[in-house]
Amino acid sequence: MGKEKIIISPVTRIEGHAKITIDLDENKNVEDARLHVTQYRGFEKMCEGRPYAEMPGLTARTCGICPVSHAISSSKACDNLLAVRPPKAGRNLRRIINLAQIIQSHALNFYHLSSPDFVFGFDAAPEDRNIFKLMQTHPQMAKDGINLRAFGQKIIETLGGKRIHPTWIVPGGVSHEISVETKDSILASIPEALEIAQTALKYFTENLHKFKKEIDSFANFPSLFMGLVNKKGNIEHYDGFLRFIDSQGNILEDGIDPRFYKDYIGEAVEEDSYLKSPYYKPLGYPNGMYRVGPLARLNIANACGTPLADIEFEKFKNINNGKPVLNTFYYHYARLIEIIYGIERIEQLLNEPQTLDTQIRAHANINRNQGVGCSEAPRGTLFHDYQADDNGIITGVNLIIATGNNNLAMNAGVKQVAQTFLDGNDIKEGALNRVEAVIRCFDPCLSCSTHAQGIVSSTIEIRDEKKKIIQTIRRG
């Protein structure tokens, strides 16, 4: 009896396209499992030769789910090229739209992509594990998901002019100020959004006991965690400093200016995926595996800094007696806490008098030839690194997308889940669903994270008019 390979393609209920391969040994035990990201986007090359001012608009096209996050990091990289800091109102407005992006994206993952597993179970029939079944059996929950996502999307549309690919975030700040009427309109929608988020959190925490096996085995292993924190060490999504901690909660690096990320983060390329594999340089590749995103942000932070989120933050910290929570299943819990934080923080920012100032943008010419922008996207820490000549023409780009930071952990996760749940002699659909579900915990956005550097494997088949292959070109 020889070795066998199981292929799950495509991985369902995620953003983008990917496949998972599971290798079985001669005894049909899981030997290895890998996540392969099958898209290639190439934005890093396409942007070369363009004026720096176009970069927020260009790079936002990387993704239709999180364009705001790219526009934020891109504009910050351009701020860096100009050597300016946007006025307080400009910074506050950028923070608000970034949080709105995070709220709507988190709601998409929880309600539309992941909740069918929570509601119907991981072993439910595949035709039942979807949002349409949820609409039939739990209509209020489905409506809540739509309304909470709409809350974030409406803020993006109101401030940015449109829900997808807004052009309002620009180098130096934002293009126009917020009116009193707009501010009041957003504030009026906050109580309902907060109530929906709290209802979802209550549902999730009350049903956690049903998923003990998944909690114990969904990418539950030691790793580092990385993210931004503010000067108080609290959770931060727009600005701040990088912090690395280990699996015991020890701070390895703190107060790192994101402009110097290359001193701490290396980038590896593997032959079977277009997704880069960043790692913590001092530990090398692949031992420097770290995780980013909601779970990491709560693990590294001292507090959230808003009333309701901090109450849940304390409960979250108690899961592992104050030490980092290692179970990837808890990404869902952290995501819901971040939604509450985001709503509360938007309210705080709108109530700051300076947010209404008309000074919203700083203007300058190119003053540096390299600029790095960093922010927290829904899925984790996002880096835009640009080189430009003295005329502001882009000569080089490096992007580390949030999802890419989790690549090593996602691969380790699918292997752990496959080895726990998959029996090669009797392959159950529910076991395969769990292998996919561990990826959904990370909420990867694969359409915008495929920017491999170096050699990647690819095959080009040239066929004649009868579809017969006349030449095959392989690289890598």
From TrEMBL:
Keywords: Iron, Magnesium, Metal-binding, Nickel, Oxidoreductase
Binding residues annotated for Fe cation, in chain numbering: 66, 448
Gene3D superfamilies on file: Cytochrome-c3 Hydrogenase, chain B (1.10.645.10)
List of residues binding Ni(2+): 63, 66, 445
Names of required cofactors: Ni(2+); Fe cation
Binding-site positions, Mg(2+): 44, 399, 451
GO function terms (MF aspect): ferredoxin hydrogenase activity; nickel cation binding
Keyword Nucleotidyltransferase: no
Database matches in Pfam families: NiFeSe_Hases
Keyword Oxidoreductase: yes
Family: Belongs to the [NiFe]/[NiFeSe] hydrogenase large subunit family.
PANTHER family reported for this sequence: COENZYME F420 HYDROGENASE, SUBUNIT ALPHA, F420-NON-REDUCING HYDROGENASE VHU SUBUNIT A
The name this protein goes by in its record: Ni/Fe hydrogenase subunit alpha
